[in-house]
Amino acid sequence: MTDVVREAKHVEAATRWWRDAVIYQVYVRSFADGNGDGVGDLLGARSRLAYLAELGVDAVWLTPFYTSPMADFGYDVADYRDVDPIFGTLADARALIDDAHGHGMKIITDVVPNHTSDHHAWFVAALRAGPGSPERERYIFRPGRGEDGDLPPNDWESVFGGPAWTRVAGGEWYLHLFAPEQPDLNWDNPEVHAEFEAILRFWLDIGVDGFRVDVAHGMVKAAGLPDIGSPGQVEMLGTAVLPYFDQDGVHEIHRAWRRVLDSYDGERIGVAEAWAPSQERLARYVRPDELHQAFNFHFLKTPWDAEMLRRVIDESLATVVPVGAPTTWVLSNHDVRRHVTRYGDGETGLRRARAAALLMLALPGSAYVYQGEELGLPEVLDLPEEVCQDPQRLRAPGDGRDGCRVPIPWAHSEPPFGFSPPGIEATWLPVPATWGPLSVESQLGDPDSTLSLYRAALRVRREHPALGDGTLTWRDSPSGTLVFTRDGFACTVNTTGEPVELPRPGELLVASAAVTAEGEVIRLAPDSAAWWSLADA
Ligand code: NOJ
């Protein structure tokens, strides 16, 4: 790379950093325990910033660490301007943000605007004040149906299962699209708008570089709260516009928030967690005057299949072109089964996950890495029933989300593998005894480990002028494979279970599995990917 190109890349990174940033998700509760209570916290996260900087990510997204009774592990916020004692103090948050900046990384925090905790001062006041009061106008209270009002006001179902309404003393019902401990706010009330803009400013003043907006497709409900008319609404999430999700009115809120973000220096960003029914509707969240990015869950949901991946990649890239936004790529997060397991678990799942990482990091746009995916962690499927704590699982028994939230193994000894300080054994979810070889310490010393693969790929991505923002060109390749090029760079992917031979694209940069070459022919291992520097670059 010439000095001019390198310099241009740095200037771009400093200005529109979010267009191709690699953003690492820290699920604070499960990342690192600094104070020895078996629960991850800000002190622990701060102590691991050097690890993240060396991994080579550009930004860190911290899941909610605000004051919360933890009915949904922090996505039920009781005080948006303070830190829950289990995670530390406001001073810890400030120190973490400053240290991250010192390491050259941005910090994104979560904001949860669709609902508060039932312990939030507003909800406590609403219950006390009674029907018809201004305090109840901050939430969505309604009389019930039926003779005695003992039927919910409509047929909406909670995402976590069961009716989306709970009745309170005095007879009214309140809406909660998630757990009953998460009452939905009334975004028709200007006081709610003003409060959230003030919350954004509070954290922007402290120095955060952006927000991940929880349930960014919620907030606005269709006028009159109409019935949906059928049960099984969980199945419709993300596949249809519902009277409570993806309503056009939410975009006005995002426009107002963009004005707040733009009033600060340094490109502060908003990232939509929006489960939109189509790529087109998702692109509406990232129009030039709205948020900067939206999670591309369409990519996450795509099976390990070359044709299907190519289709979703093309759609993802094409739909943001008219709005000028970057695409994002995400394979895992704290709400879904880890992709090693989704892709087949065991050795097959890991092989595919390693290849998927190289595919994702070579695509144009910004990428998200969920803590532990750089270690190749699988979903923990055999957590004993009595340790599972996810409210979704408790309300609607099934898989639940505990298995992707198991603490990170840092050092190779015995559980909890350095997640907590020495001497602490009990962590909020147990770490499998077999995870020693997956620990950071074990993998750092192994050039073939998944951690080494991520570090190598992120280093190349940072340095290679073709990677990050931009476009790609597909090249013809055998069925079950993907080959694309970007200026002076090529990515080859084999999604089949058989080795595949291809013409050698150039010099090998990084590979998820050994690539053998004979003259001008290369042989890609089953379920593998490789990056190449093109000879004519
Ligand atoms: C999405 C968050 O990622 C999830 O963890 C949470 O349960 C819901 N929003 C409700 O806030």
TrEMBL record:
Keywords: Glycosidase, Hydrolase. This is Glycoside hydrolase family 13 protein. The keyword Hydrolase applies. Residues 25-405 form the Glycosyl hydrolase family 13 catalytic domain. Belongs to the glycosyl hydrolase 13 family. It comes from the Bacteria. One of its GO terms (molecular function) is hydrolase activity, acting on glycosyl bonds. The lineage of its organism: Bacteria, Bacillati, Actinomycetota, Actinomycetes, Streptosporangiales.
